[in-house]
Amino acid sequence: MSLFQFRRTRPASGEPLDAAVESATPRRWGRWVLAVLIVAGLHLSAVRWIEHNRQPANAPPEAPPVQVELLTPKPIAPPAPTPPAAPKPAPPKPAAPAPKPAAAPAPAPILTAATPKPDAASLATAPAASASAASAPAQSDQAPASQPAVASGDKFSVPPSGELRYDTLVNGVINQTGTIHWSNDGQHYEMVVSIPVPFVGPFVYSSKGHIHGFGIAPEQYSEQRGRRAADIAIFNRDTKQIVYTKTPQSRPLADGAQDRFSVVMQLASLVRGAPDKYKPGVTRQFSVADNDSNEIWPIETVGDETVQARGGFTTARHFTRLPRKEGDRRKLDIWLAPSIGWLPVRILQTEPNGLQIELLWAGKLATPAPEAHDAASGTQAASEESAPAAPSMPAMDNPADNP
């Protein structure tokens, strides 16, 4: 007889074998159920502890939403009219001569048939005519004071012509020097941006057009990268359309529309006209055309910061383009410096892959000409205080330029 058979026939407790097996089975299942419940309770406690400790104990309160001022394109305010010159004082009358002794009355003229007699009407109107002639100058002096007031609009001051030079950096590594050619005669403008790129060739962006009631008005924008053919956008203001050489599609032309680089000078002109208007949080919208499309750029004023460029430091106002759509990772930041007439002292573009292309001020190649005021087009600011001329900045000039 085997050991198993012996145990089945001889239980230790002296009770029958079937009763012992039946009593042991519930105890085993109860132990397993209890172990499962204990493990589940421990897991639940661990999950609650992780969820509780995921958030910091002293989380800062959410900042309330900031109310920003949204600026849209408006017509440019014409300059204030020149007040009329004050009338010159009348010269002093000479002293009256001493009275002469009374002479004998002249004899009355002899009236003949050929001599007409003066009628009473002509004698009555003569004093009135002389009085109206005397009051005519006074009325002409008061005429300018009754002219209507000038309509309000954006104050605007186009930067004067000049050749601007910038150090170009790619991911912080300095490359060759780039240039911005800017020409402005009060009615037309031209802007050529040249950025050297190693092993590829220069990137050249060109914008030209005129200056009208909404400021800078591009007529043609071209974009050439290296040895590739240029892509051109035409701003047709007769049909209110923007047409492209890269695509057969066209886009509507909005008032105040800009291209990718003229928008920098449009922003500089607006800030030059009213610098106190662009405070932190103020956002301005621009309609900007690329080489195959156009979109709305919301550009926000960040605040005044210190920028280090070649030769020293300068204070500049920082502007950043907000995301144009959800998930937009391409960024554009512009710094305008009042010490150089609110011209761009730094431009930084960040690509979605993290690549950064930067233009950093390196001094002017030529001193800009004095700013010309064009009263007919109304493109200059109403006062010199709100639109200072672009001075030179010796601390920021390139030392190699000085003899």
From TrEMBL:
Biased composition (Pro residues): 75-108
Biased composition (Low complexity): 109-152, 381-396
Region of interest: Disordered: 72-156, 369-403
Pfam families: DUF3108
Protein name, UniProt field: PROLIN-rich signal peptide protein
